[in-house]
């Protein structure tokens, strides 16, 4: 009897050893996995070849996506740099963290941010940001031992009208090649590459004004085929077509710099064992709905963003998910994968149940919010609209509610460019979705 029990134990041990050999990732504690988060400022999903764009703007990301889980319907809750990044790191909607514009400090936020939780779990933390919009004074530095938000390599002088006078605003930034150079240096310094680390890299290259290196050879030209595509897809500002072309070239340059960085990670043996997240904070209008920039509107070009997640050792490689997800889901996904307690009080959801096919959707609607505006400036500007604006994307339907403008309702399945407003034709559908907006408004934290 004892001999039989011993044989049973031996068989179990041998089985566990076999599993460990077949699935080497099981042998490593997930809490030691390096994490690399990349946010591509102002990059809309449909201008990336990895998402089917007719130009090959992202050949590297397209190849790299074969190692990743690709989310086809990822959204930002607010199309503006600082508030959307705060949503990512706090896993809260802008109506909850109260930051709905740039250059506004987080203040007395009572929960930790993602980097604080990871640092509390002995991660080495580093952030390299490419614009003054994300300077530490606004609160995103919380939890980062290293936060590189100074000594910017480029300064662009932009003429602006302020107090009825023409003045010059200096935009301090760094190009992708400078972000990559700094990242490599940090990984080499003090052998961070051999430790468990959380590295966040922010890239600004797709944000206006575009600033490609002087010697950069552009891949794309403002040709007839390109203009036909823009015309066919309701880009309504022909005078800005050359600028849209420069946007595509800037994304191609960014893709090349990412390829350079990921080659380094691969050569150093870092890439295969790392959890890598590549996403964007928001998109860009590019002339659709007669608006080039972002912040003012909640149309798809501004809120539909890329999201690729590469898990260690090739797990779930090549999987594609069509269910809508949000930037606020990234932090709980990271913590869930690492098996670290979520102390963020996350409003987002872990994406692992979606990836594991345990659920079909993680929420009923994706909520959207426009940037906050002060009172109308004395100067005549087009980057302003009265009132507040909110949106909800529920299945194939999208509602945009404004306190000042006409209500909007779109069927994205039949009208992906959002050209036909159905609010008057479908009053019951609008009323039903307006209740979703009311729920979102009820989440506001009035204590902040």
Counting DSSP E segments of at least 2 residues, the number of strands comes to 17
Supply the number of structural domains.
Answer: 2
**What is the global morphology?**
globular
- The helix fraction, in percent, is 25-40%
What is the fourth-level CATH superfamily of the largest domain? Alkaline Phosphatase, subunit A
Description:
This protein has 448 residues and is of the alpha/beta class. Helices cover 29% and strands 18% of the residues. The chain has twelve helices and 17 strands. The strands form four sheets. It has an eight-stranded mixed beta sheet, sandwiched between helices. It has a four-stranded antiparallel beta sheet with strand order 14-15-16-17, covered by helices on one side. Strands 10-3-13 form a three-stranded mixed beta sheet. Strand 15 and strand 16 (397-402) form a beta hairpin. The longest helix has 27 residues, at 241-267. Mean pLDDT is 91; it is low at 19-28.
Fill in the keyword field for this structure.
alpha/beta, Alkaline Phosphatase, subunit A, Arylsulfatase, C-terminal domain, 2 domains, four-stranded antiparallel beta sheet, 17 strands, 18% strand
In short:
With 448 residues, the chain is of the alpha/beta class. The protein has helices at residues 2-22, 59-64, 81-90, 94-97, 114-120, 176-188, 224-232, 241-267, 300-303, 330-338, 352-355, 427-441, and strands at residues 35-40, 69-71, 74-75, 124-128, 146-148, 154-162, 165-173, 197-203, 275-280, 304-305, 307-310, 320-321, 325-326, 366-369, 389-394, 397-402, 408-411. An eight-stranded mixed β-sheet has the order 5-4-8-1-9-11-2-12, with helices on both faces.
């Amino acid at each position: 009897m004892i001999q039989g029990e011993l044989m049973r134990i031996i068989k179990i041990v041998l089985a566990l050893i076999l599993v460990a050999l077949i699935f080497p990732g099981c042998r490593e504690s997930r809490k030691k996995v390096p994490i690399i988060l990349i946010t591509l400022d102002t990059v809309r999903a449909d201008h990336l070849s990895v998402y089917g764009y007719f130009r090959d703007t992202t050949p590297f990301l397209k190849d790299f996506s074969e190692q990743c889980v690709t989310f086809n319907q990822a959204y930002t809750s607010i199309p503006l740099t600082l508030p959307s990044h705060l949503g990512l790191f706090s896993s809260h909607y802008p109506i909850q963290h109260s930051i709905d514009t740039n250059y506004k400090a987080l203040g007395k936020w009572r929960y930790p941010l993602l980097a604080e939780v990871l640092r509390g779990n002995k991660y080495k933390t580093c952030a390299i940001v490419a614009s003054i919009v994300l300077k530490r004074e606004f609160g995103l530095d919380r939890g980062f031992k290293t936060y590189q938000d100074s000594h910017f390599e480029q300064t662009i002088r932009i003429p602006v009208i302020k107090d009825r006078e023409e003045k010059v605003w200096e935009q301090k930034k760094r190009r992708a090649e400078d972000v990559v150079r700094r990242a490599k240096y940090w990984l080499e310094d003090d052998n961070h590459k051999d430790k468990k680390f959380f590295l966040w890299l922010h890239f600004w290259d797709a944000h206006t004004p575009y600033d490609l290196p002087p010697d950069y050879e552009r891949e794309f030209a403002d040709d007839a085929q390109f203009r036909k595509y823009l015309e066919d897809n309701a880009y309504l500002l022909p005078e800005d077509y050359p600028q849209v072309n420069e946007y595509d070239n800037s994304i191609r340059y960014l893709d090349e710099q990412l390829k350079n960085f990921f080659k380094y990670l691969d050569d150093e043996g870092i890439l295969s064992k790392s959890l890598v997240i590549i996403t964007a904070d928001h998109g860009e209008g590019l002339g659709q709905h007669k608006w080039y920039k972002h912040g003012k509107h909640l149309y798809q070009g501004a809120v539909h963003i890329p999201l690729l997640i590469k898990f260690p050792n090739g797990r779930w490689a090549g999987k594609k998910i069509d269910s809508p997800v949000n930037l606020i889901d990234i932090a709980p996904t990271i913590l869930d994968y690492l098996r670290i307690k979520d102390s963020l009080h996350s409003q987002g959801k872990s994406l692992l149940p979606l990836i594991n096919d345990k659920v079909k959707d993680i929420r009923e609607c994706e909520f959207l919010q426009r940037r906050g505006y002060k009172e109308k400036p004395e100067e005549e500007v087009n980057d302003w609209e009265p009132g507040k604006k909110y949106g909800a994307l529920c299945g194939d339907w999208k509602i945009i509610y404004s306190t000042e403008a006409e209500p909007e309702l779109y069927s994205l399945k039949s009208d992906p460019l959002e050209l036909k407003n159905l609010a008057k034709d479908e009053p019951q559908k609008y009323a039903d979705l307006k209740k979703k907006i009311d729920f979102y408004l009820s989440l506001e934290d009035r204590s902040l």
